[in-house]
Amino acid sequence: MKTNILLQKLFLIAMTIMSFPICGVSHIINLRDGWTLQGRYKATVPSTIMGVLTANGEYPNILDGMAYKYVDRTRFDCPWTYSTEFSLTEADRSGNVFLQLDGISYRANIRLNGTLVADTSVIYGTYRRHRLNITRLVKADNKLEIEVFRARKGEPNAGYVDWNPRPADESMGLIRPVSIITCGDVIMTSPAVQSEVNVTTLDEAWLTLSTQLENLTDHEIKGELCCSFDGQQFAVPVTLRSGERRLLNITPDAAKALHVSHPRLWWCRGLGKAELYDMRLTFVADGKVYDTCSLRFGIRQVGEFFTSNGDRGFTLNGKRVLVRGGGWTDDIFMCDTKESNAEQLYKVCDMNLNAVRMENIWSKSQDIFDRCDSLGIMLLPGWTCHWEWENYMGIAHDDMYGCMTSEKDIKLLTQYFKDQLLWLRHHPSIICWFVGSDKLPAPELERNYRHLLRRYDSGRPLITSAKKLESQLTGTAGMKMAGPYDYVGPTYWYDKLAPGGAFGFNTETGIGAQMPQKESLIRMMGNAVWPINETWNYHCTASTSSMNKTDRLCKVIQERYGAFTGLDDFLHKADLANYESTRAMFESFRVNTPRATGIIQWMLNSARPGLYWQLYDHYGQPNAAYYSVKKGNAPIQLIYDYAQGNIVAVNSTLTSTTINAHAKLYAIDGSLLFEKNVQVRLGSQSHVNLFTINGIKDNTFLFLEAKDSKGNVIATNDYVLAEHMDKYDWKASDWITTPITRYADYTPLASLTQVKLQAKATATCSADGVIITVDITNPASVVALQARLALTDSNSQLVYPAHYNDNYISLEPGEQRIIRCVIPSLTCVDELSLHVDGWNVDGQEIIIRKQ
To answer: How far apart (Å, rounded) are the C-alpha atoms in residues 56 and 186?
Structure first.
């Protein structure tokens, strides 16, 4: 009987809301198109000044060669003005009208219809959001002008730090949306849902709904906030005083519907589906609907733990999760689009990664955050080390707390954090907030951050530093930033003495130079592509102290593989070094859980065409490491442990499984040295040592294959091993790298017999795009090492995007492989060619044929 009464009541609430007249419900007009810059350049918003200029044809190919080095930066010392026009109906103007600015870099004067609305004394700070009341100034037809000024010395703007030269315009512009909000007497903003999950049973969750309500009148308003989601409805009474802005938090004590039975949980990639819910909120008073808004949220609980060594780890819905990701950067001109975001996050998923770290709260809209919500990609956003060092900020830094220590700066960063919390807190993909990178926030600033987190977003941890630094308020940050940032060999990651090795949470690390594919390199360097020269060095990092040349990579190649004889030989050797060591970085953390808790490759992408720290280049083309990371992070995989010589079976999923593990070991001449089959039962989130590979002489090739109980191939993996691996001078380790005192000897690979692969390629059309199927066979009696497949167009440019299921493949003697490549944007294949080359693979070109 009680259930029926409740259902009737909820039905009446819904019907009553539907019957209420609408009274000034807020309406958002996004001012994206129709802008001009300086009265002459067509512009869209968000954008930077350099983004607009390059889109209008100025600075063609500015990022290639050395051109960017010579850009006249004084051009941006003066202000630049964006202008646009917009119209409002009489109904729009009958209530309140606001101008919403979600991000301006760095200062601005705002004029509407010739009247100054706000000046630079109010509108400043890259990560502040501003809502300006323009009710009395608007007309039917309106002209909006925003005069922007670049950040100056000491002002905390979007930080690109040392992975590329500083933006010529200091990211000056309207870098996040500009919109007009029309509304009635009440406006509702920043809705979010926090959740607590029964982590023992996973069969119930408790939600807290939070939203801001503001009474824009001079009188009290009594009403109800009505909510509906997943077939549930409820209403709570709300009284707003004159002019009151209230943060409303509704718990299951006030609304039983917020105690959810059998919730569809949000999981990260590899652990389950990223389930999302839709909620509708309506504020009703005096028989009228005053405002409504929609919210998409996920039910999940983020937790944390510390190992016995004081290293931090994360849990999701009670399950420990090994965070595996890359460091994100926006394009240097902030020209990323929804399409480029989608393609980059496809790559994150394709590499079997589950996280992205943003050293900055990147992105010019909420698009990337929405996509990560849907894809199950965990996000770790936060502030940049740009604000922590004198050479970037231009003001003195404190050894512990960086540059942001003055009362003025603490007040500004506190406002930054509040605005970003309210803008982004509804995203389940965000699992923590980094409020320090290389250093700690000043104690007063940390107190402010923690107060804001308790008030607005208590369901996520606050990380005080990406290093293992000790806050005087809260103790250890529990993270690790001990390098390396330049080359180390595969064995490094497994060694217990390695500072950046497989223990704890390594927030940023990598092997330094990671070469793009040949076609990208030619595009980047032009006529200066070979031999290695100053143009190459310019496309390394912008650091003034190190990692600004290719000399270390050249030394690695010469010591490990022998002198290189030309561009192709150099790239084959650089690709093998990149492939093997980057994969080992991820694999070592997988086989060393629970001591290892997280690993972030520095970096994921590249803000400009470059040679350092990337899994795919600025043009969106994967490098060799991309495919090794994809293999190394396969949910169920066989891994070679360089420290023990063991074959390890790893299962990172929540489901137990039985697999058949198969290993083969080949000599340089192609003779089979070792072969073994083992069946093993893998529990959820577990790894098992299977057997040891002994007696490696000279160079050998290890091929691993995992099959399910029905004989289907789940995953493959392959390694090139040396008899004696690298040795390190651990005492000489620094934040950049650890010196190698004896390099692994791979010079016998020079004697590998050249192979002419048998390959044919056909194209078929599907709903997903054009599918290129490559049938490739190694007819030789030796291993074909790292065959690269490259689809090019009529201009000899790499096709973009092109999604290969595998690449840089090594083939056993006599092995046949089918490789598929999906080109989602392609409709015609008449001018496509497939190029095949590799370490000991004769280059050939195959014309694509329609099937």
So the answer is: 42
Q: What pLDDT does 25 receive? A: 85
In this structure, what token pair is assigned to residue 91? 């109904």
**pLDDT for the residue 6:** 40
Q: By three-state DSSP, how is residue 564 classified? A: coil
Cα 356 to Cα 269, 344, 438, 711, 733, distances in angstroms: 12, 11, 18, 34, 27
Residue of 321, 324, 272 whose CA lies nearest to 298: 272
Contact call for residues 486 and 511 (beta carbons, < 8 A): yes
Summary mean pLDDT of the chain: 95
451 Cβ contact list (under 8 Å, min separation 6): none
Rounded to 5 degrees, φ, ψ at 387 are -85, 0
Strand pairing class (173-174; 47-48) = antiparallel
Mention every residue, 6+ apart, whose C-beta is less than 8 A from residue 336: 330, 344, 363, 364, 368
Give the contacts of 161 (CB within 8 A, at least 6 positions apart).
359, 384, 385, 386, 392
CB 315 within 8 A of CB 305: yes
Q: Give residue 372's identity as a one-letter amino acid code.
A: C
Q: For residue 288, what is the DSSP state?
A: E
Q: What confidence score (pLDDT) does residue 768 get?
A: 84
Are the C-beta atoms of 271 and 318 separated by less than 8 Å? no
Alpha-carbon span 841 to 818, nearest angstrom: 17
Neighbours of 400 (CB within 10 A): 17
Closest Cα partner for 784 from 821, 749, 830?
749
pLDDT of residue 13: 46
Kindly report the CA angle at 440 between 435 and 443, in degrees rounded to 5? 95
Q: In the prediction, which pLDDT does 825 show? A: 83
d(CA 23, CA 215): 14
57 torsion bin: left (phi>0), alpha (psi -120 to 50), beta (else): left
Write down the pLDDT at residue 545: 85
Which is it for strands 686-692 and 646-651: parallel, antiparallel or unpaired?
Answer: antiparallel
Going by pLDDT thresholds of 50, 70 and 90, the confidence category of residue 708 is very high
- At 18 the pLDDT is 46
CB neighbours of residue 565 within 10 Å: 9
Instruction: With cut-offs at 50, 70 and 90, classify the pLDDT of residue 15.
Output: very low
User: What pLDDT digit, counting tens, does each position of 816-839 carry?
Assistant: 999 999 999 876 677 899 999 999
SS (H, E, C) 264-285: CEECCCCCCCECCEEEEEEEEE
Task: Give φ, ψ of 565 to 5 degrees.
Answer: -105, -5
- Residue 513 is classified by DSSP as B
| Residues 785 and 838 sit within 8 Å (Cβ to Cβ) | yes
Q: Which amino acid is at 602?
A: W
The per-residue pLDDT for range 555-588, each reduced to its tens digit, is 999 999 999 999 999 999 999 999 999 999 999 9
Identify the helix (H) or strand (E) that includes residue 764. strand 758-766
> How do 672-682 and 657-667 pair as beta strands?
antiparallel
Q: What is the mean pLDDT of residues 589-599?
A: 97
**Half-sphere exposure of residue 445, counting CA atoms within 13 Å on the CB side?**
26
| Amino acid at the residue 617 | D
Burial of 55 from C-beta contacts in 10 A (0-12 / 13-18 / 19+): middle
Cβ atoms < 10 Å from Cβ of 574: 23
CA proximity to 484, closest of 506, 467, 505:
506
Q: Cα(843)–Cα(518) distance, rounded to whole angstroms?
A: 13
Q: Are 71 and 61 in contact (CB under 8 A)?
A: no
Q: How confident is the model at residue 21 (pLDDT cuts 50, 70, 90)?
A: low
Residue 142: both structure tokens together: 């309106």
Return d(Cα 394, Cα 153) in angstroms, integer: 5
**Mean pLDDT (whole number) for 167-190:** 97
802/850 Cα distance (integer angstroms) = 17
**8 A C-beta contact, residue 557 and residue 573:** yes
CB within 8 Å of 40: residues ≥ 6 apart: none
User: Facing residues of 12 across strands?
Assistant: none
